[in-house]
């Protein structure tokens, strides 16, 4: 199994980053490839999950071990495949997801693309008490964000929505609403944006 790749980021598309190492280019599917945009042309260590099925071998990539572990855990949920797990990780942070499972927050879980009440319930059933993370349950959303971080987070969220297939025109219609959000986390903007775009 390929645990991680340390190489040169040679290209980024809406779904993958291309990493070259020792003359070999690896296509790695990521929750939000544009997170790595500033590292194009630079060396990068990306943690990978080697997904094997009868007709394909696919590499999924993550910024850290926590994202990789959560991806693997979500795959254990009945009815959720790699595409669904990626959508979750593109829309939220590891911490917020873990807290939502711990608090059985179905409303939060159903904000993810393709996750209805039945799937949210299944996530809680399959994952509560089994996630290998230790987070306190403080409410992150009550913290006052730094304006610079907030702007950066919004920009990152817009790139993520583009990567998920939404057009510039669609995103511009919801941008004023997103700009009113008080958060320093791109995941918050992404989740809000997806909810608005899917109405």
End-to-end CA span: 40 Å
- CATH class category name of the largest domain: Mainly Beta
Uncertain regions spanning at least 5 consecutive residues: 136-150
CATH-level-2 architecture of the largest domain: Beta Barrel
Largest sheet: 5 strands, mixed, barrel
Taking all residues together, what is the mean pLDDT?
A: 84
Your description of this structure?
The chain has 199 residues and is α+β, with helices and mostly antiparallel strands. The protein folds into three domains: 4-62, Beta Barrel (OB fold (Dihydrolipoamide Acetyltransferase, E2P)); 69-127, Orthogonal Bundle (DNA polymerase, domain 1), CATH 1.10.150; 142-197, no CATH class. The chain has helices at residues 65-75, 82-91, 94-102, 106-109, 117-127, 147-163, 168-179, 186-197; strands at 4-12, 16-21, 24-29, 43-53, 56-62. A hairpin with a 2-residue loop joins strand 4 (43-53) and strand 5 (56-62). Helix 1 (65-75) crosses helix 2 and helix 6 (147-163) runs antiparallel to helix 7 (168-179). The chain is globular and about 45 Å long. The model is unreliable at 136-150 (pLDDT under 50). It holds the Pfam family RuvA_C. Keywords: Cytoplasm, DNA damage, DNA recombination, DNA repair, DNA-binding, Hydrolase. Its main location: cytoplasm.
């Amino acid at each position: 199994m390929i645990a991680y790749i340390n190489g040169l980021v040679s290209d980024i598309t809406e779904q993958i980053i291309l990493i070259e190492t020792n003359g070999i280019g690896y296509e790695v599917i990521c929750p939000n490839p544009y997170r790595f945009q500033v590292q194009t042309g630079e060396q990068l260590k990306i943690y990978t999950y080697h997904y094997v099925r009868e007709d394909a071998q696919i590499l999924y990539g993550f910024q850290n071990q926590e994202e990789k572990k959560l991806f693997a855990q979500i795959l254990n949920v009945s009815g959720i495949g790699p595409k669904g797990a990626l959508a979750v990780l593109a829309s939220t942070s590891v911490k917020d997801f873990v807290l939502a499972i711990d608090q059985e927050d179905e409303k939060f879980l159903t904000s993810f693309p393709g996750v209805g009440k039945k799937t949210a319930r299944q996530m809680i059933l399959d994952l509560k008490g089994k996630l290998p993370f230790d987070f306190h349950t403080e409410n992150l959303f009550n913290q006052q964000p730094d304006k610079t971080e907030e702007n950066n987070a919004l920009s990152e969220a817009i790139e993520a929505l583009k990567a998920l297939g939404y057009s510039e025109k669609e995103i511009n219609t919801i941008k004023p609403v997103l700009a009113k959000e008080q958060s320093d986390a791109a995941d918050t903007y992404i989740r809000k944006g997806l909810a608005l775009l899917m109405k």
